[in-house]
Each structure stands twice: as C-alpha cells, then as structure tokens.
Amino acid sequence: MVSRRAFLQFSGAALAMSAVNKAALAGLPELVTIDNADTQKLLYPETGRPYHPVATLNGWSLPWRMNNGVKEFHLVAEPVRREMAPGMVAHLWGYNGQSPGPTIEVVEGDRVRIFVTNRLPEITSIHWHGQRLPNGMDGVSGLTQPPIEPGKTYVYEFEAKRAGTFMYHPHADEMTQVAMGMMGMWVTHPKNPNSMKVDRDYAFLMSAYDIDPGSYTPRTNTMLEFNLWAFNSRVFPGIAPFVAKQGEKVRIRIGNLTMTNHPIHLHGHEFEVAGTGGGWVPKAARWPEVTTDVGVGQSRAIEFIANELGDWSFHCHKSHHTMNAMGHQVPNMIGVSQRGIAEQFGKLVPDYMQMGETGMAEMVDMAEMMSMPLPENTLPMMAGNGPFGALAMGGMFTTLKVRKDLPKDFYGDPGFYQQPKGTSAYEWAGALPEAPQAPVPAKETPAAVELQVKKPGHEHAGH
Q1: Residue 450: CB partners within 8 Å, gap ≥ 6?
Q2: So what's the pLDDT on residue 381?
Q3: Where are the domains of the chain?
Q4: pTM attached to this predicted model
Q5: Domain 4-306 carries which CATH code?
Q6: Distances from the Cα of 348 to the Cαs of 338, 345, 373, in angstroms?
Q7: Mean local confidence (pLDDT), 422-441
Q8: Label partner for 293 (CA 20 to 30 A): which of 111, 178, 260, 441?
C-alpha cells in the first residue's frame, strides 16, 4: 500500500496529476493506492463500527477516516497498468492504481462520504450500483448530476441503508469506461457483526476485455467477441486461489459487469445462493446448487462448508471463457491433415506451425515447449501447470484449496494438494473386463401379437 506522497512520485500518474489542485487534495482523506495484483491483507476496522472484513481476490479494500461520525473515502479515477497474468500487462482505466478499484467496506447504517477525483482525459461519474440513496447521489451524468470534469473532485454522501453485495462503476461514457476496467465492489456489512457470520468472506468482479495480441489497450467498441474473460481483471494462471481450512464456512461474493451471463461452477461441494444485489435470500428460499448463473449487472453471494480436502476447480462453465487471447475466426481443423500445407507455408514463414488437427490441447504442449512463438505481451490460449501436468485452462478459472490446517488470516497459496494413497484416478494396465451383455427383449405375448394384426375398424367388421 502506498501513501499520497509516494503515489505522487509514481511516473504513470505524474501527467494526470498535474491537472489536479494539490492544495485542494490536502483536505481530502489520505489517498492510498496499490500497484500490484496480489490479494492483500484483510482491512480490519480500527475506527467505526466492527465487522468481519472481506478478502478481495487479487485486490484490496479502501481505507477510510472518521470525520465527526462520517466514514470518508477517497477514490481517484485514473489510467492504470494491470498485470492480467505473468507475462501480460494491460493499459486500463481504474481507481487508486488498480482495475478493478478497491473494495469499499462499510456497515449498515454508516454515514458515508466519498470524494471522487477525476484524473482521466475525459468526464466521468460514479454510480453506486444497487444502493438506496438520494436521487442526486445516484451518479448518472447529465441526469442526476453534472459530469466530473478532468481535474475536478466531486463528493457523494449517503447512508448505507441495507446490508449486501453491491458494485460501483461510471455512468458517463459507460461503454468506454467499463470496457477499460472502471469498476469496483462495495460490501455493506450487517449492524450485528455476528449476523450471517462466515469464516472466510471473498469478493471479486467479473470483467471482459478485447486486447489484440501484442497490444496493451482494450478495444472499447467490442460488444460480444471478447478474448479475455477475467476475475478482477486477472486471467488464469494469474488468478489467486480461494483457500479455506477444512470445516470453515465460506462466502464468495460475485459481481458481473461483463456483456454476458456467466454460469459459475464449483467442484467438490454444494453451495447455496445466499444473497443477490437486492439483498439476502431467506434461508427457507435457498436450495443446494453446484452452478449459479450470474447475469449482467447482477451480484451473487454463495455460501458453503469447505469440508472436502483438495484442490477444487472454480470457473465459468462457458468453455470459451476458460481460454486466453482466443481468436473467434479460427476454423475447425480436427481430422484435416495439414502436413503439405505446413511445408509450403514453412518456406515463406519460418515460424509457421499447423494446429488444431487433433484438437486444441496440442497448443498447450507447444506453449510448454516454447516451440510456439507468441507476440509480445500476449498469453497462450491455455496455460498453467498442476501436479500432473498442464491444466490447459485460461480466463475465468481458479481453484478452491481446502486444507486441514490453515491459519485464520492466511490467504496465500498453500501449494498443490497431496492426494492420499489409493484416492487418485489411475491408468488401467490389465485386461479389460468382459463387457456386459445387452438385455434380451421380452418375448411378445399372444395378446400383443393379436393387437398388432388388428386393423383400424376391424372390431366393427360384419355389423
């Protein structure tokens, strides 16, 4: 975490900062920023009402100060650099050094004041998605407020009226600014810190980007054909794991600000959808699930007991969303021999290689052997290694790692799970057992035969 003084020395913000009156900033809450993509330590409240904090996946929570009973935050909208996974950096827009911006955590009933400084090259605003608040604080540029001009600071102030999982994002040139990564999570905790208490409370946002291989800046006019599907602007293998001690109750809060829905699937456990953007679901109205569809503009909070040891997949179940830098116009070449073509192209393009003849898993092998050249600042379509080889995944994919012994405040990676002897799938080396025989059809009864030979109207013959 970086102080205001250190942040002003950060070269990427120097030009934008010149437009902001530094004397005016002196009266604002301390500006903090983070320029790395690790999951940061929990922000336990030292002032204000008590609550159990969330862990933002590959992110952090925004500190505040108390001012005469009001909880004050300072958000700065600005260009940022986001490492999406090791080997690739994106030039995005976000808040306080990152995209998504920091999670804002408050308590039900808190009076909240948020200072928003604009360091972008164009106007902006912030909409507090899902909040009950005065109309003039809703953050829709032109409708409920004038836009925040570059270099200006606006103030939003309202009461956090209900507990739940919310989001924030611009409502000014929204198509560009959301596509560039401007978004963040907002968590309002219940007044009673022991109400709906869980042992681990995670939060993340889903986002999507269209970044050409070799480039750094997203295409902002893309509506459907995105090539990078992200959890908190990270793609696998750059997404941190969820971790839990065996037997702990876990909550995962999910927000969706992409252009499509995402069926989020958890392996090895059942969960309940405990909350939506509209509030908490009554216990009697919940049911067990392993996949929940999170629509555009929606948030979900799922809860489960992490009682099964192991490394369990957690991902979007749209298969194209678990790949990186994917081209949508690649033809299906399965079963098509390309040897002659490869030889001819190889004379013109020395690095050319055929692909897709036996499926796309060969892409993983090529990337692993480094025999496939990639453009600068681009990730392979499928990547990541596990204890048994390549995972062949990308995009919206990570793991839930459940262990017997895990410190309460440990949110790092405990490494791969060591499967007990005799509990792993294995290759069969012996003779295959004899295949079971197909069932023999039952013999037809005389009554059935008689019914088959009867013709329509036969029963009326002779009348």
Answers
A1: none
A2: 80
A3: 4-306
A4: 0.84
A5: 2.60.40.420
A6: 16, 5, 16
A7: 90
A8: 178
